[in-house]
Amino acid sequence: MIKFLIKRIAISIPVLLIIALISFILMYTVPGGPFDKEKKLPPEIKANVEAKYHLDKPIYKQFAIYIYNLTLGDMGPSYKYLGRSVKDILKDTFPVSLQLGLLAFMIPLFIGIPLGIIAAVYKNTFIDKISMFTAVLGITIPHFVLGALLILIFAHSLKIFPPALWEGWSNMLLPAITLGIGPTAYIARLTRASILEVLHKDFVRTAYAKGLPYSKIILKHVLKNALTPIISVMGPILAGLVAGSFVVEYIFSIPGMGRYFITAVTDRDYPLIMATTMVYAVLIVIANIVVDVLYKVVDPRVRLE
């Protein structure tokens, strides 16, 4: 296991470097600059500002400087939020995005999987059709539509939950549902398909022949063997929920990392764009490594090598 983890981490380093390089090149090829939106600066002042942030150097030198500073833990200053470093911004915003992502992840974990199990157990019944209809509906509704609908119903009409901000558990429920409903629907459909496939295996027929209770067969034998494809997507889904909450954070005015990423792109705040991109990339890499380890935990027959 240790050897496998070291190997995966070693492979991940060049992957992250390639992501950083591509992101860096894309930023500088897009027209405009970080100081173009401000009042037009005199040439000498603009030259001094660009020299301060190394923007006067060739792109390969800027990238080398950025990677060197990143290895030292320095993500640079924000061009938009003067007086604040990128590290300070991430320190304040990442815990919010992480909390939102984890809350949203609880929905597919504790609702999506049971919903898929119920749909598979009651295959082709009214319960199965209602469950899958709900799942398809959850996949097809965009985040911005669902979020606005939930705000309209539960905040403005029923006045049960606040429509925005991030100040307590009541503020967290609507954005978590908005973010987690799509993955929940996907996990429900995947769980149903995986369980139906395992139900036709020979060892399940043997368990039936031995007279084991149906509930024990489903929970102990079928579900354990049906978890592999579910685990394979749960890691990336968790990373995606933490990293992909831009729209939800914007709709509900949540002070998370996603909102800063959007403003960083529009303001050409290069250090903040790079920092958020790298944080998201690291999350996805970690999620994939955790998934591979969980394969071994769930199925000891899997060889990590």
What CATH architecture of the domain at 93-254 would you give?
Orthogonal Bundle
CATH topology of the domain at 93-254: MetI-like fold
Cα separation of the termini: 9 Å
User: What is the H-and-E element order?
Assistant: HHHHHHHHHHHH
The level 1 CATH classification of the domain at 93-254 is Mainly Alpha
Number of helices: 12
Describe what this molecule looks like in 3D:
- The protein has 305 residues and is an all-alpha fold.
- The chain has a domain at 93-254: Orthogonal Bundle (MetI-like fold), CATH 1.10.3720.10.
- Helix content is 76%, strand content 0%.
- It has 12 helices and no strands.
- It has helices at residues 2-29, 43-52, 59-71, 86-121, 126-140, 143-157, 169-198, 202-209, 214-243, 246-251, 257-267, 270-298.
- Helix 5 (126-140) crosses helix 7 and helix 8 runs antiparallel to helix 9 (214-243).
- The termini are close together.
- The mean pLDDT is 86.
Give a quick rundown of the structure.
The chain has 305 residues and is mainly alpha-helical. The longest helix has 36 residues.
Question: Which helices and strands occur, and which strands form pairs?
Answer:
Blueprint: H1 2-29, H2 43-52, H3 59-71, H4 86-121, H5 126-140, H6 143-157, H7 169-198, H8 202-209, H9 214-243, H10 246-251, H11 257-267, H12 270-298
Helix pairs in contact: 1-12, 4-5, 4-7, 4-9, 5-7, 6-7, 7-9, 8-9, 9-12, 11-12
